[in-house]
Amino acid sequence: MVEMFNVSKYYDREVPALEDVSLKVNKGEFIFITGPSGAGKTTLLKLLFCAEKADAGQIFIAGWDLDRLKKNSIPYLRRNIGIVFQDFKLLPNMTVLENIAFAMRVVGNPEKEIKKKALNVLKLVDLMHKADDYPLHLSGGEQQRVAIGRAVCNEPTILLADEPTGNLDTKSSVAIIDIFKEINSKGTTVLVATHNENLFLSSGRRVVILDRGKVTEEGLR
Fold first, then answer.
1. 3 burial class (0-12, 13-18, 19+ CB within 10 angstroms)?
2. Cα–Cα distance list, 195 to 35, 44, 76, 115, 120 (Å)
3. Distance between CA atoms of 198 and 194, rounded to whole angstroms?
4. Alpha-carbon distance 91 to 102, whole Å?
5. Cα separation, 202 vs 197, whole angstroms
6. What pLDDT digit, counting tens, does each position of 26-55 carry?
7. How far, in Å, CA of 184 to CA of 187, rounded?
8. At 27, phi and psi to the nearest 5?
9. Buried (b) or exposed (e) across 170-194, using 16+ Cβ within 10 A?
């Protein structure tokens, strides 16, 4: 599903953001990527959804060679990738339902199917009762659940989450991880970048530890 071979990324010639990283993620896996601030977690995810380009090495996602991917093909790759950010990035002038419907409309879903699919997504993230509310009227945890719903509404094969619980309390964080587990159980490959070890300790999931741009350890936790 995801393969990285000796990947490096430099923003500063002397300090690599990632250095010689190799990683394989199988279809249907749920992996945590962790490490201190500045370890390279966000950079790794950015490379996977083509927000950044590797300076060395090769990256393959579902058969796509990102090094050879033309710029006009990136939107098609991203249709297979859902992305969840720490700061939600919701459209404040749209309701919860409209935020999710908009994400489906952008990629050309038939209008007659959009509302039905959007409501099913709201059930998944337990927000049916908030369908007509605006983001500013929601708690942080609720906003993040909307963001997750928007990320998965087009049924991506891969879901990437960058510090998705960074602004949330413990209870909300656990609820978010439970939603990711539910999404993963339906076959979606999930990669969660987090510095919060409480999210993955005793999880039974594979954990990849980054430090100063290098993979220093990986295994089940």
1. middle
2. 6, 14, 30, 36, 31
3. 10
4. 9
5. 10
6. 999 999 999 999 999 999 999 999 999 999
7. 5
8. -60, 130
9. eebbebbbebbeebbeeebbbbbbb
Length of the chain: 221
157-167 pLDDT per residue, tens: 999 999 999 88
Residue type, 164: P
pTM equals 0.93
| Average of per-residue pLDDT across 157-178 | 93
> What is the DSSP code string of 38-103?
TSSHHHHHHHHTTSS--SEEEEEETTEETTT--GGGHHHHHTTEEEE-TT----TTS-HHHHHHHH
Task: Report d(CA 52, CA 131) in Å as an integer.
Answer: 34
Q: What is the DSSP letter of 168?
A: S
